Recover the amino acids of this structure.
């Protein structure tokens, strides 16, 4: 069964609104989670590293004030797309690193459409 | 992070034909991973290679890591329609920060 879940799986919102995406590790504790973005027919690009109990580390070119990341517990990281615009429409995927299994698990992804 | 170049971008084959996708780096890679993403789905981990010259097989899939650890390939023998999807290679930067740098992927379509 799935070991990393994401919610919601799909979301449609109006331009200017904020959207929160949750990523949960179901069977293990994840001190580190990663958020990726994938535009249609393109590869996955790392947006940020979510660290439990500390600030997220953002990749170059990713606006930290626009993509708010909170990793308040060892099983949950959230990505909030603030003041979303149509160009933010994308497939957002989180991954979680399981230290015990030394394996990275992918969430099923969240498709965001901003109208 | 270290860049990985992947070719071809697209490949269309007749069912039963073989398929190969290649990843190349200008620098030595500590590892290479391969993922498959079905249309509308999320990437699914296939395998990781870490040793120079390593070859691993999964049924009809053969994965190779070059001797210089700068290139890798995924070969599918006798493709089936279930093989359709995008195949990505990725490099893990390692350490406690398990960041993945993905290649652009190869979209495989199979004509039945």
């Amino acid at each position: 069964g799935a070991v990393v879940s994401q919610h919601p799986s799909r979301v449609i919102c109006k331009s200017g609104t904020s959207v929160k995406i949750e990523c949960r590790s179901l069977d293990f504790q994840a001190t580190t989670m990663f958020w990726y973005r994938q535009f249609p027919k393109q590869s996955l690009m790392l947006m940020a590293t979510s660290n439990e109990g500390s600030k997220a580390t953002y990749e170059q070119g990713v606006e930290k004030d626009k993509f708010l990341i909170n990793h308040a517990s060892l099983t949950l990281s959230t990505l909030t797309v603030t003041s979303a615009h149509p160009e933010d429409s994308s497939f957002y995927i989180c991954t979680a690193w399981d230290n015990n299994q030394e394996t990275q698990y992918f969430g099923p992804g969240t498709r965001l459409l901003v109208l | 992070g270290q860049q990985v170049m992947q070719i071809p971008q697209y490949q269309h084959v007749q069912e039963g034909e073989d398929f190969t996708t290649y990843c190349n780096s200008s620098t030595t890679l500590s590892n290479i991973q391969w993922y498959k993403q079905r249309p509308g789905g999320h990437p699914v981990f296939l395998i990781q290679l870490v040793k120079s010259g390593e070859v691993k097989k999964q049924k009809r899939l053969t994965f190779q890591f070059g001797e210089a650890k700068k290139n890798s390939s995924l070969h599918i023998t006798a493709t089936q329609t279930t093989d359709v999807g995008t195949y990505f290679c990725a490099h893990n930067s390692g350490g406690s920060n398990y960041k993945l740098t993905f290649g652009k992927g190869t979209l495989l379509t199979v004509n039945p």
Q: What stands out?
A: The mean pLDDT of chain A is 92. The two ends of chain A are 34 Å apart (CA to CA). Residues 56 and 102 of chain A are 21 Å apart (CA to CA).
